[in-house]
Amino acid sequence: MYFRFQNKIAYEKTLIFTKDIFNLTGKLPDYEKNGVIKQLRAMGTSVLQDIAEHYSSKGPDDSFHSLDRSIKTVAKIAAMIDLCHNLGYLSSPNHHSWTVYCEDLAKHLEEIRKSPPKK
């Protein structure tokens, strides 16, 4: 496989996470299509792209920065999930599930960032 990222667990997890964000945003009110929906979808695809970039990077600095961006973007997604809950778009149980989901992905990415680069 030419693209190394396609067979990595972090990429697979992020791909599912991004798909779930698209599913979630599909259930939000239509009047949010240029607001919350657009932002969440853009951030979800950004995380996915940063993971692909991480595994495609030539040097450790680029790889580190890609992971750093992805972790920060997951935090931004968690903040948007909080906003959706406070706007009444998400129930408390869904809000909690999404918060845990974001935390789990961020922790997984942080573990990768802390591990020594493979040669």
UniProtKB/TrEMBL annotation:
Q: Which domain of life is it from?
A: Bacteria
This chain belongs to the protein called Four helix bundle protein
Write down the InterPro entries for this protein, in alphabetical order.
Answer: 23S_rRNA-intervening_sequence, 23S_rRNA_IVS_sf
- According to its UniProt entry, this protein's organism is Candidatus Amesbacteria bacterium RIFCSPLOWO2_01_FULL_48_25
